[in-house]
Amino acid sequence: MSALLAAEWTRLTSTRLWLWGVLAALGSGGLIGLLALVGPENFTPPLPGLDTSQGTHVLLGLLGFTVFAPALLGTIAVSSEYRHRSITTTALFAPRRWTWLVAKLVIYAGAGLAYGAIAATTAGASLFGVATLKGITLGLPAATVAALLARIALAMAVYSMLGVAVGALLRNQVTALVAVGAYFYMIETVLMIVPGIKALYPYLPGGATAALTGFTYLADAIAGQTGAAEAHLLSAPAGGAVLVCYALIAAAVAVVAPLRRDIM
Amino acid sequence: MNVEVRGLTKTFGPASAVTDLSFEARAGIVTGFLGPNGAGKTTTMRMMLGLVAPTSGTATFGGRRYADLSHPSASVGAVLDSAGFHPAHTARDHLRVYARMGRYGPARVEQVADLTGVSAFADRLTRTLSTGMRQRLSLATALLGDPQVLLLDEPSNGLDPQGIAWLRHFVRELAAAGRTILVSSHVLGEIENTADHVVVIRDGRLVTTGPITGLYATATVLARSPQADLFAAKLGQSGIRVERRQPDLLRVHRLSTAEVAAAAASHGVMLHEITPERPTLEQAFLDLTGGSG
């Protein structure tokens, strides 16, 4: 397994994918800083300012909304092997196909964590920087902000694994990318409107993510619009565990079904 | 390490790609795997390597299936197609990834690059490589583990004449060093000077297997006679295959000149000419595979 991990690491670091990852992480963290500079009170519609707990929460939550980016990087990692047909050689060097899928999951969990750490650090630094610049105090204690940022970084690691699993499951790069994007930005939101499914929300990837990142804006908004009671989210560790389960299930399905398919 | 294929069969829905195929490839010789395009050569090789699951049958290397080998890439190397590189990798990056996967050191990467001529373009991105360069890179990848068995699927595709000569020499050297080599081709000229032994398939079925010299056993004789019609009919009645080349010229299959002369005498047919034909391998191949190869 160590050889496979080393190979995946070499594969990741020898193309520019990692560079794009770092840029995306810096960009998403920096975007939070930019929004902080504009100030939530100047959004349309206006939201509570940075010096309120809710205002700080909203900005951190927006960072949580970018978890799809590391998921896409994980998806690209697997689907590009099918697209460029290097999968043949990979399967020859590691005929037990689950082994290299596990190696990819591990490497991309690490890469996702690194992505999350960069994004969270950039976002944290810019939030505190903007607060100092504006001469205000953030609406949440520094320790709480740090804890929420750490949870977002963790969510990004889990989402990278999810991305790898989806890539292995769907194989076609474009289909996989569209599926990942469409699910997080559309399908789950649409599902939330269906009354019965709403009860399941805490256990859906989005709900589990909200529990892990502590960002309940979407759940609250839908509860507000539908007049229904708020969905009760899981605790952060439970939300994280649910997400890891999704990644493992997707990986297991990928091993059992598509990886057994013929490589022509 | 010998390679043994037993009763290998693959069906895709109602269509059979390979049917009950059995053959062997032995250590120390080059086995040519011949067949027209679409005969099932690639599917067979992919089944041998566990990339395609056989419907039935087995393929073993030294008695073990590919996936059961303790260190597959050190036992069997394969060149299957000239694609299969990440376009943003250099040739050296590609070799480094798979060297790591197979636990081969950086020195081995340089060795196989030198051996295959990849060194000349090792720092170029794979998307900029020509087909011939890609073939060399595929071969270098297959050689990383210094394998005992080498499966090459149409390795000359895209190589220039110089490259083909180089490959021929290279493959012969590997076999001389005791390696087991299976080379597929639909172009007989490539195999003629390389292979010792041949396995011929058509429509997924074995046509013949044996020493390459055996293919020449399908000798033909040209017989010119003013009674060509009569002679052709008499030979046909005896189950001998005859082709009409010209109104008075017949090509008689699988008989020696003496046998043709004897047959003519026994039927009272006058002959004006008897010429033995040493068939080209191409002709032998067409005969074996039914003519339309």
From TrEMBL, chain A:
It comes from the Bacteria. This is ABC transporter permease. It comes from Nonomuraea phyllanthi.
Automatic annotation (TrEMBL), chain B:
It comes from the Bacteria. The keyword Nucleotide-binding applies. The keyword Signal does not apply. InterPro entries: AAA+_ATPase, ABC_transporter-like_ATP-bd, P-loop_NTPase. Gene3D superfamilies: P-loop containing nucleotide triphosphate hydrolases. Keywords: ATP-binding, Nucleotide-binding, Transport. SMART domains: AAA. It holds the Pfam family ABC_tran. GO terms for molecular function: ATP binding; ATP hydrolysis activity. SUPFAM superfamilies: P-loop containing nucleoside triphosphate hydrolases. Belongs to the ABC transporter superfamily. This is ATP-binding cassette domain-containing protein. It comes from Nonomuraea phyllanthi.
